[in-house]
Amino acid sequence: MAQGTVQVTHTGTSRWRRRTGEYASLAAALEAAADGDVLTVAPGTYRENLVVQRAVTLRGPEGSPGSVRIAPADGVPLTVRASAVVQDLHVEGQDAAAPALLVEEGTPELLDLRIVTRSAAGIEVRGGARPTVRRCTVDNPAGIGIAVLDGGGGVFEECEVVAAGQAGVAVRGGGHPRLERCRVHHASGTGMTATGENSALEAVGCEIYEVRGSGVQVTARATAHLTDCDVHRTTADGVTLDTDAVLTLADCRIHDIPENAVDLRSRSVLTLTRTTVRQFGRNGLSVWDPGTRVDANQCEIFDSTGDYPAVWVSDGATAVLDSCRVHDVPDALFVLDRGSRADVVDSDLSQVRNTAVSVSDGATAQLDDCRIRDAATGAWFRDHGSGGTLNNCTVDGTQTGVIVTKGADPTIERCTVDSPAEAGFYVSAGGRGTFQNCRVTGSGGYGFHVIDGCRTTLRKCRTERCARGGYEFADAGPDTGSGTGPVVEDCTSDESGSLRPSAAPEPVVQTAHQTPGLLGAIPGQRSAEQEPLRAPAEPSEPARTSQAVLGELDALVGLESVKREVRALTDMIEVGRRRLQAGLKAASVKRHLVFTGSPGTGKTTVARLYGEILASLGVLEKGHLVEVSRVDLVGEHIGSTAIRTQEAFQRAHGGVLFIDEAYALSPEDAGRDFGKEAIDTLVKLMEDHRDSVVVIVAGYTAEMERFLSVNPGVASRFSRTITFSDYGPDELLRIVEQQADEHEYRLAPGAFEALRTYFTALPKGAAFGNGRTARQTFEAMVERHASRVAQLADPSTDDLTLLYAEDLPELA
Question: What's the Cα-to-Cα distance from 112 to each of 55, 68, 90, 291, rounded to whole Å?
Answer without folding.
Answer: 18, 12, 9, 45
